[in-house]
Amino acid sequence: WAPKGRGVWRYASMLPVKNGVTMGEGQTPLVPSTLKPNLYVKYDGANPTGSFKDRGMALGVTVAKLSGANKVVVASTGNTAASAAAYAARAGLKCYVVLPRGNVARGKLMQAALHGAELVMLNGLFDKALEYVVNYGTKYAYPLNSFNPWRLEGQKTAAFEIYEEVGCPDYVVVPVGNAGNISAIWKGFKELWELGLCKKLPKMVGVQAEGAAPIANAWAMGKRAPIFLDEPHTVATAIKIGKPINWPKAVAAVEESGGLFVTVSDEEILRAQRLLASRDGLGAEPAGAASVAAALKLDLSGTVVAVVTGHALKDPDVVEISAREVRNADELVELLEK
Ligand code: F0G
């Protein structure tokens, strides 16, 4: 444990690779929330491409490069695509992103296009895109989905940053889609514990949207194995996933930590998104606000960290925008005087 410098490489002593591609990812703000006592928001929307994926891509793209690959491929609900596109661009690699048509928020599509990725659309949901990447993509390009263990090595640094600011909290609340991030963060805390830095490990809380809750629904019935869904639905498109590939690791993280899985409704997600924005000043995309929705809903004692995984700008279409019109300065003054 010898943190030094910036980006995920600050924690080189804890990583299996010691340096590589970086854009200063990580060191995101840990903000005390005004919404509940002892609630902190780990604002991972503040990463270079606006999501936690950058932590994993710094490692993943570095290893892709070391392995001699010249192409990378991902299936994505959008954030993985945006992040892979940006980090691949920086490393001089060609990037293919396989996306479920109509199920990717506009900001994310724009980013993947801007960073020069090849956008591939298919009819179907994320689960089908991932299946294609696993079965066909991996033969031709280096895969950067979260079944790639290097991704999780990068993402575990969120735990190290939380530790540097508040020590080891009582609960860490994480939105769960393909179920990589919660296992990565848990791995980070366990490593701190093994070094004797964490005296007591946090309980991990995995949050899924009510209509896309293969793991949380099974958990509520006392089962470990998820109940896969063919047609998941939720406003939080980032976590609209019916067959999460990393489920065994996520269930292990929650079980070992003594935590739980919980579902939140789309209404609860959108309400948390509005509260977080209008009271705390933090803009989250819906999936990112799911952790806050769960932290507000559950009765958790002690220090609680909700990981806000993606920035509000990712998904401009979920927010209704209304404006007043003024025809002259008098009308503006009248409005301001109210
Ligand atoms: N929050 C956001 C904003 C995400 O984009 C994702 C996953 C998650 C949470 C869930 O993380 O999959 O590790 O459990 N997005 C992936 C993507 C699926 O393609 O961008 P997870």
Spell out the key features of this protein.
338 residues, alpha/beta, Rossmann fold, 2 domains, six-stranded mixed sheet, four-stranded parallel sheet, 12 helices, 10 strands, globular, binds ligand F0G
Tell me about this structure.
Helices cover 40% and strands 14% of the residues. The mean pLDDT is 98. It has helices at residues 53-66, 79-91, 106-114, 126-140, 149-155, 157-166, 181-194, 214-220, 247-257, 266-280, 286-297, 329-337, and strands at 30-32, 39-43, 71-75, 94-100, 118-122, 142-143, 171-175, 203-209, 260-264, 304-308. The relative contact order is 0.15. A hairpin with a 6-residue loop joins strand 1 (30-32) and strand 2. With 338 residues, the protein is α/β, with parallel strands linked by helices. Helix 1 packs across helix 5 (149-155). The termini are far apart. It binds ligand F0G. Ligand F0G binds next to helix 2 and helix 11. Ligand F0G binds at residues 51, 76-80, 146, 175-181, 238-239, 285, 287-288, 309-310.
Task: Present the secondary structure layout.
Blueprint: E1 30-32, E2 39-43, H1 53-66, E3 71-75, H2 79-91, E4 94-100, H3 106-114, E5 118-122, H4 126-140, E6 142-143, H5 149-155, H6 157-166, E7 171-175, H7 181-194, E8 203-209, H8 214-220, H9 247-257, E9 260-264, H10 266-280, H11 286-297, E10 304-308, H12 329-337
Parallel strand pairs: 2-10, 3-4, 3-6, 4-5, 7-8, 7-10, 8-9
Antiparallel strand pairs: 1-2
The structure holds ligand F0G.
Ligand F0G is lined by residues 51, 76-80, 146, 175-181, 238-239, 285, 287-288, 309-310.
